[in-house]
Amino acid sequence: MVHITRRERFNAAHRLFRAEWNDEKNMQVFGKCSNPNWHGHNYELFVTVKGELNPETGFVINLKLLSEIIKEKVTSKLDHKNVNLEVEFMTGKLASSENLAVAIWNELEEDINKLGAKLYSVKLIETENNFVEYYGE
Amino acid sequence: MVHITRRERFNAAHRLFRAEWNDEKNMQVFGKCSNPNWHGHNYELFVTVKGELNPETGFVINLKLLSEIIKEKVTSKLDHKNVNLEVEFMTGKLASSENLAVAIWNELEEDINKLGAKLYSVKLIETENNFVEYYGE
Amino acid sequence: MVHITRRERFNAAHRLFRAEWNDEKNMQVFGKCSNPNWHGHNYELFVTVKGELNPETGFVINLKLLSEIIKEKVTSKLDHKNVNLEVEFMTGKLASSENLAVAIWNELEEDINKLGAKLYSVKLIETENNFVEYYGE
Amino acid sequence: MVHITRRERFNAAHRLFRAEWNDEKNMQVFGKCSNPNWHGHNYELFVTVKGELNPETGFVINLKLLSEIIKEKVTSKLDHKNVNLEVEFMTGKLASSENLAVAIWNELEEDINKLGAKLYSVKLIETENNFVEYYGE
Amino acid sequence: MVHITRRERFNAAHRLFRAEWNDEKNMQVFGKCSNPNWHGHNYELFVTVKGELNPETGFVINLKLLSEIIKEKVTSKLDHKNVNLEVEFMTGKLASSENLAVAIWNELEEDINKLGAKLYSVKLIETENNFVEYYGE
Amino acid sequence: MVHITRRERFNAAHRLFRAEWNDEKNMQVFGKCSNPNWHGHNYELFVTVKGELNPETGFVINLKLLSEIIKEKVTSKLDHKNVNLEVEFMTGKLASSENLAVAIWNELEEDINKLGAKLYSVKLIETENNFVEYYGE
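Above: the input entities. Below: the structure tokens describing the complete assembly.
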């Protein structure tokens, strides 16, 4: 049983706010992250998959396939996009790193399981000082 | 004569586009960087100053003062902002890294010269793969 | 249940030694790390907290509060200090990274629990080649 | 119980291929990684050990000893070598990162246990985008 | 006049040796880098271009075009290759980082000049401890 | 003419202060960096040498020799030391990064010139936010 991790990156805009709160309340809770004119990040995404080694290939999973799944299901939908306005799988959700990591997990899980491995964790780095990890539960 | 460098960071949204071009033309020239809904980056800014060593302090410049100048004149105006919409010193300019580096130089030069040193370069990292440097000419 | 991590940094001096051992014995066990004139490091501290997502904010914990707790309880007491001589919560303890990580955990646990989350791990990087992690047990 | 990690590095050549497959089949499964003329990497190896703190030293394990074990048993055999042709403990195995991590675990486990600690994980970074971890089971 | 830099990466095998020297002499001069079974690196390549800003685009050069030139002329020929055996522009040259940087400059200069900018430097990182830079003279 | 750079590292304690000033004045000028109980850093040192390529070896300079010179003349005297108290070549000088970079240049220049190359720059990184460079004049 080995864990293997693929890093992919995307650059996106977002803001933290609740539509039912006024600007003052949003600013109080979310601070400068609620700027109505948006801000953005260079996100780094680490997807970790766990599985037995295939004796023929010495692989848990073909990393090229893993990379393609992450690009198709996740980073192509996020890169150079606005997380709040343009990302279908984030519709109706606060664009926090926590919610984004959980949503990315849900986008990836099924396709990765089809490859015969198990999604183990999604790690999303927002800045060099802040990151989140989700383990599916 | 020693060069000393201070790094500061800011997270901002931007897009590349010319108002007089339609979306198709903007997309053709700027690609996904012209997305009308914005995207963003974790920018890293390296400001390098050059000068003689002060024999009393062993300093080219007091780095605390340099950091305060950069924050007051540059990063406080850019952090968690939209470069196109909210940054006075970028008004009317394309929000490219090149233009941003030149504008940051212009914001900093006078205040740094007052400290008795000379601004040597502004380096602006947009992503781990792309950065620009401006030397004032 | 999401894990969220905040990085903070501090620069400190320390030495490894036991007062009841002579210099020769200390040098034999701790090598150059027992230099009586001290040496120092740029420490990086990663504090990981685990919790349910608050449905109103999309947060495990407000990272601004977490950062303030870490600064108040830990890094303000360590930054530009001598770990052996000036850090109350290390009094009477060997200034190893292991002991420091455990002591940092003890400083942080109560205040983080009051925020409704659970301290998950403390990771302390001493050099690019050496780091320790403590999970509270 | 604290986890402590030591990083060591090695630069090596390798290729992915099965001798019983022809070049076409190898290329189809392993892509450019099966180039018969080899390619190579700057590998980073993180060895994590877990144990109680020794009350006399404040250590889980003497990192100098851990570093020496890793060098003797692993990196001296891999650095500036060809993983497929010159590394005895990889004989007969596909030179994937997954197999390499498992083989490194097997090289290290006994010697580390003799020091009174427990090998916890082997993390092997092949590129900035790809790494594997093995926890011994 | 702004400098802009694009990073590209490639993983390759190489060895340092002179065919007219015997193994002993090669080992004496080049050490373990002359291992006849090869070793390899994750090379990082930074290509810096200098030019006036295009007032229409705010660009020195279109980074997408620069990246394509680097891939076509350089990294596609080096990635997952053996520098000594498979890289036409290195034929008959010692596969040192110095020679590689100069050869990369020669591959790139003409195509970059055609874009109306000037190649300023080629920086080639071989390991985290060693890198070379070439400025064209 | 190629530039080649070797990185070496050292961990040291220091403080910024002038003996003829009282603690209050030192604190006012140098801030927490003047703490009488010391603090410390993981310093990174980049030594850049410039020269013609040796046609026999493809080298500007043998990096193994360069590394040995840096260790003998510089890092062995600084690593796990107190810059103010134990480093002969810093005696009587303020232990600022600027002074340290100049002093390191002076330690290295003669030995590097003997190898037939020219010392080009000394870059000293004190923290991820602060570094200095000295070019010998």
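Note for the figure: The CA atoms of residues 15 and 119 of chain C lie 28 Å apart.
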